[in-house]
Amino acid sequence: MGTNAVVIGGGIGGLATAIGLRRIGWRTTVLERAHVLDDAGAGISLAANGIHALDALGVGEVVREAARHQYTGGTRTPDGRWLARMDGVALERELGTSIVGIPRATLHRLLRAALPEESLRAGAEATSLDRSDPERVRVVCGDTVLDADLVVAADGVGSRMRTLLFPDHPGPAYSGSTVLRAITEHPVDLRTDFELTWGRGAEFGHLAFADGRAEWHAVLNAPAGVRHPDPLAEVRWRFAGWHHPIPALLAATRPEAVLHHDVNELATPLPRYAVGRVALLGDAAHAMMPNLGQGACQALEDAVTLTAALTAEPTVASALSRYDAERRPRSQAIARAARQAGRLGQQLDHPFAVAVRNAAIRMTPSRVTVRAILRHAAWTPPRLG
Fold it and tell me: What is the CATH number of domain 4-71+96-172+265-346?
């Protein structure tokens, strides 16, 4: 097989794939449509499967060093009562590594640092694919045409490449939830590493970072497209009276730092993750709701699995067939589980249903909760050659 690849999309999944491909000797170019790599975004929590994938790519340790390990926290009600506590030590014992929290911008920079500077082209938007030659794909990018033995479409939930490959697919659907989030301007006195608080049709969570700052997110049931003149004021109003440290987190936030995005997902699963010499990866393949914290972890699993398949199989075609067979069942099952978690968690609005859910969570033994997390986070990466 050839060894020249084009990766479309310079996010977590695309960068991880480029790292993996270069580790096995492929020449790889990453096309990122953003002209300036300003690393916009808030924070991210990486479960054990994501960390193990980074280990396989050779960047796990540097990410651990920059992250805060999550051992304490859990789920609460708006008045501060605990529904469930997180046993980070037990999870680390079972999985071999802890959950970590890190700013997305930091993770992006660390992944880019593992690649030669010339391999990433900013302000380069892939607009079409020419797949008429079975031996290669031509990627049209402005006035430039790149020939590739393999194209990896990692261009996000609104993937243009997915639309080109599956023109009859309905594309992403609005989940019914919208999220506002930010990173605090300065450190905040936090007693836990990670928390979620569930109200009626609303969730507030925080994720502590190694430098003492924190990411917070507020998820609300809302119609698609609703925006507020002052998002921070809206969050303060919506979560007024909720327990500490929510007021402190909001007080430590600059209004202009708040991001607001609707949560979209691929509610209709793709029939396959590969077409010819093009592989779909990450949100382009299986955009899911964030309720299990598995979106980025699944993209990292994709990157490692695709890289391993290319070392194990004799042709690109057989490698992509293997990648599809290994990744589609697992990632789509986790997407379904994330949707269900959202419906029973943040999106639940009826007072009686909320009360029943809360009672059920309180009565669930911690070992059962740990087993539930293991179903998604327990993953052993394949060997890269």
Answer: 3.50.50.60
